[in-house]
Amino acid sequence: MSILIRNGTLILPDGPRQADLRTEGGVITQIGPGLPAGDSQVLDASGKLVFPGFIDTHTHFEMNKGQPNETADNWASGTRSALCGGTTTVLDFAEPVRGASLQSALDEWHARADGKAACNYSFHMTIKDWTPAIRAELPAMTAQGITSYKVYMAYPIGISDVEIYEALQAIGAEGGVCGCHCENGPLADARIARLLAEGRTGPDAHPEARPVQIEAEAVVRYLTIAELAGVPVNIVHLSAARSLEAVRAARARGQKLYVETCPQYLLLDDGVYHLPGFESAKYIFAPPARPAGNQEALWQGLADGTVDTIGTDHCSFTTAVKALGRDDFSKIPGGLPGTEDRGILLYTYGVASGRITPHRMMELLSANPARLFGMYPQKGALQVNSDADIVIYDPNKTGRICAAVNHSACDYDPYEGMETVGGVDAVLLNGVPAVENGEPLGGPGGRFVPRGPSQFWR
Ligand SMILES: [Zn+2]
Q1: Residue 404 C-alpha to ligand 1 middle, in angstroms?
Q2: How far does residue 92's CA lie from ligand 1's centre (Å)?
Q3: What's the whole-number mean pLDDT along residues 359-370?
Q4: 263: preceding bond cis by omega (within 30 degrees)
């Protein structure tokens, strides 16, 4: 199948250009002005922006499978939702049962996703234990296309500073990159216990249990460990201005590091913890939404290059599942949906608001994730021989975020009612039309993307 996208504004690696783009056999074969139609199917993109498919660096589909706190989105619905928002590749977190091998988690995640995913996908591997056996598995992970990892400093699955240090060196030797959930877990747990003892059982206590210091201290510590280990690292879901200061200081010393933030930290402030009834439970996630002012600092970080990628941390607990913590905020499952909203929110509150350019949006959503996670330029670029994962974005639409219209199986959307500018008109996945007028066309067309070493670009 050959498709010719005509008259669009292509967001190319070196900047926007008015041109045509042809795909054939799942890859981009030609870019240039006035390409002849030949026997290609023609898509008119006049007045529209053409992006390389977006990459969501952070999803949790089918989390807690089989348990009372299972997420609403499985691999089919989660990837369909992602695809309708212009995301053509997701990076989900494979999680071994504690004590089990990395291979067991990789096999399990393949079993869940293969043949079911509506968009392309790969997995980060979560390290919950650091043992000689786990360490010995890393080359086999590399051989199977898994080159990114995640460790936690919080929750019962956090590992020690020394274990993180050793894991970073081993992952670095494989050419991989490790992300970290940076929060001081023991301090957060102590604050939770004190708040509960004071009778503070509602969701309004959540941001007090995990204030910015809980994150900023862990960011400094993680970067210090990485500096000593001598390897580049990634910080996932960075939420606070104070953490950005630590990032800038480390970079000024010459450290190589990469930063992800999420739409919830750009668009929500801690006012969401003072909603009537149990509404605030929807906004229980960690780190929490921050006091006003932090959001603008993060937008500045997107514009000036401090922040490199935007993931959603899509983790779609329904309101019924959130009610498990009705009497104890620390038992409210932490997470929120949003994989479908990421591109449109970034366009609306970033590009249309004049904070970033369409080219910067492309870097944040496509090129940088592809580089950091070893997929560039197969993914993340509109150029000849790259995969034909393409988003045609219509900047002339207006609307509102609406859970009832979106494709996630979750019963709410944390951005419900927010005004939007533009929308995803069409998506090509591996060269095949997969979304038309914002609606999914087909079934499970997603493929596993085996990845190479990280390409650290600065
Ligand atoms: Zn996460």
Answers
A1: 24
A2: 9
A3: 98
A4: no
